[in-house]
Amino acid sequence: MQMYDLPDSRGHFGPYGGAFVAETLVHALEELRAAYDASRTDPAFRAEFEHELKHYVGRPSPVYHAKRWSQLLGGAQIYLKREDLNHTGAHKINNTIGQALVARRMGKQRVIAETGAGQHGVATATVAARYGMECVVYMGAEDIKRQAANVYRMKLLGATVVPVASGSRTLKDALNEAMRDWVTNVANTFYIIGTVAGPHPYPMMVRDFQAVIGRECLAQMPELCGRQPDAVIACVGGGSNAMGIFHAYIPQDGVRLIGVEAGGLGLPTGHHAASLIAGRPGVLHGNRTYLLQDAHGQILETHSISAGLDYPGVGPEHAWLKDSGRAEYVTVTDDEALAAFHACCHYEGIIPALESAHALAHAARIAPGMGRDRILLVNLSGRGDKDIHTVAERSGITI
Amino acid sequence: MSRIAPAFQRLAAQSRKALIPFVTAGDPTAGDTVALMHALVRAGADVIELGVPFSDPMADGPVIQRASERALEAGVSLDRVLGYVTDFRKRDGDTPVVLMGYANPIEAMGVEAFARDAQAAGVDGVLIVDYPPEECTEFAALMRRHGMDMIFLLAPTSTDARIEQVARIASGYVYYVSLKGVTGAGHLDVAEVATKLSAIRGRTALPLGVGFGIRDGESARAIGRMADAVVIGSRIIQEMEEAPHGAAVERAAALVHGIREALDRP
């Protein structure tokens, strides 16, 4: 494959991406673009980012051979990129550190974030505490009820959690509300977006900060098994952990890239969050991408057992990777993800996040049909402690 | 041909300021919109901005969000909005109507189909909040071919270069957002607006409308001294929310009438 250098200077990945925002945000985005451009080419910035990733997050995260589970499945060998071992328990912290450092360079004292399951909110509250910034997290009123532990975690870290009661009272509405805060308080406020969506430069910037995941794998896989994997598999909600592990592999022709969307109760039921598989291109939250929408262009409510995948859009770079054929996208239902969740607990002693369990489920689905010398690399993007109540409830158990 | 430029020419000849109320189509009820539009014109509106409901109105404050939610609840989407304009035109062939909303419902309808149907309905201009000039060059050309104006926002943070960029593609009028923030928020700084408006006047000959933060006759009068048009939105919707059942249209018209009088007072 040719050199991959997307997006263009205005944030386009082919027809996707861009900056579809009201004039009130244009200047703030221009400032951010300039600050990010200056940061990413500054060796001092990169050195500080890498230092934080090593000493605060605990990078590099290991790659682990899931030997027992692979043996039981009887086909391809499954390797796990252990983002669950990062500080705060997920890949989200890679990005929040990067953006907090940009915010500090810009002299912004206050950071805001949106969150669905609370993982990005916790990662933002964490870095705000680390760098001494004020932190406000917007969270759908519905999600606050479902994720009480993470709400308390954010409060422990000193953040203010603001419930959002408009619209469907979930992640997309929290994002709307965070945008409104940013427009109003732009002089002292930096908006830390948690995924590879939103207006340019966010999809590029978040991808760049998460791309450390794939870069590490590129070095770790040959050390561990003598070659690169046959396929890299990651779950896709907004798509930040998937872009993080895919990006370094885009120019590696022999490596299949497989994104796994939340199939919820199954595509025919309409209760899912599979924007790339079942959506149509449109404009939402500052970028053009695949969206779950009705015939009138109104955004639909989504469903997934995993709050982190419960989003009606997807990062524009995934839209481009889908159309260009470089990546393929599939769905996994709630039940399939749960089965993989339990298998990973039983056979490997690892409790995965329900988000990551979607990627595991697809690996478990295709591994048996492949030779034992084939290699699948799965991004285990987060740990599942936050999900044990959901899983227990599904099994009829009250903790 | 758009009715906007002739309307502003008539007003300028009379040394009057344009009063532009904004209401969300389908709010407070789906049945009220056409009657409300006529009532606003009788109360002194010169142009009507009709909001197209969208599920995720990112740039709007809580008042217009609620209006959007009520309208969507009643099943009002872009095709019904065009139907309202068609009905309105049966009795009013002069008052310009501008659709204001977000890109996705228009893209879902298909931009060609939208251009054709909006023109046929009698729409004069379109303001798409999340279509900045650099992302809608082709769409703006399409609107022009169908005789409609493309109206853009300018903000307190818009740089001189940005104002020039907007001026190159805009027609009809330019809408200056007088506040940092979302619709319906905060308080107006009249002196700051004056400074910015003179910077904008130096870069475009289009009429200047000012909105966001205008709540009564006094603030409208203050803005009317320096702008060509005064836009009032959230305040009208609030008035209708607080009105007793069945009295929303009447209350909105009374509010607009009061502002008209304040604006026309010598």
Descriptive account of the structure:
The complex is a heterodimer of chains A (399) and B (266). Helix content of chain A is 44%, strand content 18%. Chain A has helices at residues 23-40, 43-57, 67-73, 92-105, 119-131, 141-146, 148-156, 171-184, 202-210, 212-225, 240-246, 275-278, 316-324, 334-348, 354-366, 388-394; strands at 12-13, 16-17, 63-65, 77-82, 110-115, 134-140, 160-164, 189-191, 231-236, 256-264, 280-284, 287-291, 327-333, 375-380. Chain A is globular, with a radius of gyration of 19 Å. The termini of chain A are far apart. Chain B has 266 residues and is an alpha/beta fold. In chain B, helix 9 (190-201) links the parallel strand 7 (174-177) and strand 8. The mean pLDDT of chain B is 95. The A-B interface holds A 10, 18-24, 26-28, 166-167, 172-173, 176, 179-180, 183-184, 186-187, 280-286, 291, 293, 295-299 and B 54-59, 61-62, 65, 69, 72, 77-79, 102-109, 129-132, 134-135, 152-155, 157-159, 162, 166, 177, 180-182, 185-186.
Tag the structure with descriptive keywords.
heterodimer, A: 399 residues, alpha/beta, four-stranded parallel β-sheet, 16 helices, B: 266 residues, TIM Barrel, nine-stranded parallel β-sheet, 48% helix
CATH fold-level assignment of chain B: TIM Barrel
Label the overall shape of chain B: globular
The poorly predicted ranges of chain B are none
Q: What is the overall number of helices of chain B?
A: 12
Rg of chain B, Cα atoms, Å: 17 Å
The mean pLDDT of chain A is 96
Q: Strand order within the widest sheet of chain A?
A: 3-4-14-9-10-13
Radius of gyration of chain A: 19 Å
Order of helices and strands of chain A: EEHHEHEHEHEHHEHEHHEHEHEEHEHHEH
Major β-sheet profile of chain B: 9 strands, parallel
Total DSSP E strands of chain A: 14
The total beta strand count of chain B reads: 9
Overall average residue pLDDT of chain B: 95
Q: State the separation between the terminal residues of chain A, measured CA to CA.
A: 51 Å
